[in-house]
Amino acid sequence: MEAPATREIDVRHCSTxxxxxxxxxxxxxxxGEEIAxxxxxxxxxxxxxxxxxxxxxERKIAxxxxxxxxxxxxxxxxxxxxxAVLPEFRDRGVGRRxxxxxxxxxxxxxxxxxxxxxxxxxxxxxxxxxxxxxAVARRYIxxxxxxxxxxxxxxxxxxxLVAEWWLGSERVKSILADxxxxxxGSPERVPIPTNLVEIRENDRAAAAxxxxxxxxxxxKWFAKGYAVTGLxxxxxxxxxxxxxxxxxxxxxxxxxxxx
Length: 259
Hints:
- The protein is of the alpha+beta class.
- It has 8 helices and 10 strands.
């Protein structure tokens, strides 16, 4: 059951300049101006097959997701560049409702895949992507956006995992129905310490070492044909779980054909 506050959220397409400007103001509130994109990008996405989806509470925007139209190997997909929710609406299902609307709209248009990048050191986001949505990841982009002045990045390279959300797969459908699909066999692991936020704030060199170790392990297993399929908590940290691509239950991944 959704909480009453969540049921009061109206999720729909944004289509006016005023709504795009609201999205930009929300960007500034969540990330600051350093990594925000202007309203013109929202206009382009709307008119070129992308998506601008907003979550509104009492006619004011509480969150949004922005996706751009993309193509790989002759097939269309969506690159979900940004999803943001105001702090007062987080942990209330708003982000998941935005993604579910995004999925439904994409499937209606015949789009089977939505991708997005995210910081592998952000374990809360990782849990949402893999455990709640059923995404997988098999690509790692070191310093994707360059080092920024955003406090969210803590002065570290902006390394990113690429999440692949195969919208109509049996894996995704079962996970969205809360039917957990167990990892087969003994997965490979990439450990991340639980207190990483504290490490980032107090010891940038130590945080950089964690990032480099994780980068090397992800790249090693991706090169061997593995993909991230889940996370598992343990004392002192959280492990990313990786399985051979051919053994992922309920999903057959096509070969990658470049970035």
